[in-house]
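[09:14] KT: can someone run the structure on this one? pasting the chain below
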Amino acid sequence: MSTNKHAIIRYRVIDRCLRQVDHPWNWESLAKECSREIKSQMREKITLSERTIKGDISSMRSDKALGYNAPIAYDRSEKSYYYTDRSYSITEAPISKSEAEELANMITLMRQFTGFKHLTGIENILHKLELLVYESMNKTKQIVQLEQPTVIPGQEWLDPLYKAIKQEKAITIRYQPFNRKASNVLISPMLLKEYQNRWFLFALKNSSKELRTYGLERIISITPSNREYVHSKAFDPKSYFDDIIGVTLEPHKRKVKVKFEVKGVAVNYIRTKPIHHSQIELDATKGKATFQVEVIPNYELRSVFNSFGKALKVV
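[09:31] RB: done, structure tokens below
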């Protein structure tokens, strides 16, 4: 991330310098200004090369992803870079400091979700937004931090699986369940779902036409297949998870009413953060309450109950 921030700072500094028409700017003077700003903003002392600065200028001129199309020219007699359009700036609409702080916090949130390579367009937008923020302020404190880590196991499979689902293409995955040998499985992928910092794939197993759940961190390889993609009219992602917690729907189990008693500080925790949308509170006394959920029991439900230890008892 620091390399990306360095580039942001360098673009801003070069832009700021080239708008100072009364000063000649060669690559060396631009490099010194960039190094000085990086040291000031990030407390890092670095020396920038001619290749780096000229690469930045080239990117500002013609990199389609950045989209600046900066009118930078070089005066051989003065040995200086300059803007041919004196009114040009890579930030055409400066924002206020308060707006910049809000924007910076939004970028922090959005950057948590860049696991899909097909969303590289968003990455380019975020890069431009960061430049806009940098223009308007020096630093901002982080206000929001998501639970989701930068890298989730199996995240490298998100892009090919997304494309297979969108294009309705059957694929063969080499899959290794926990404590079992790996094997090849022909599947028709249907949905990607994230739950508690893990990615899961819902797909029909072509040989049995049964819906299966695969953890992405257990996928070893993915191979395109020319076999027919199998559709499922019974699987509706919008309603499939209504009666369960998490991702596991155990076969032939029906929805039941589950009552549980909670005591101590866990009472307010479960009141303010229901474990399921069907949760209701049946009664309460001092330091204790009884709740009910109407769900299909599964592994995730048991895990949630167990996480409260002795503070929760299933009635």
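[09:33] KT: thanks! The chain has nine helices and eleven strands.
[09:34] RB: yep, looked fine to me
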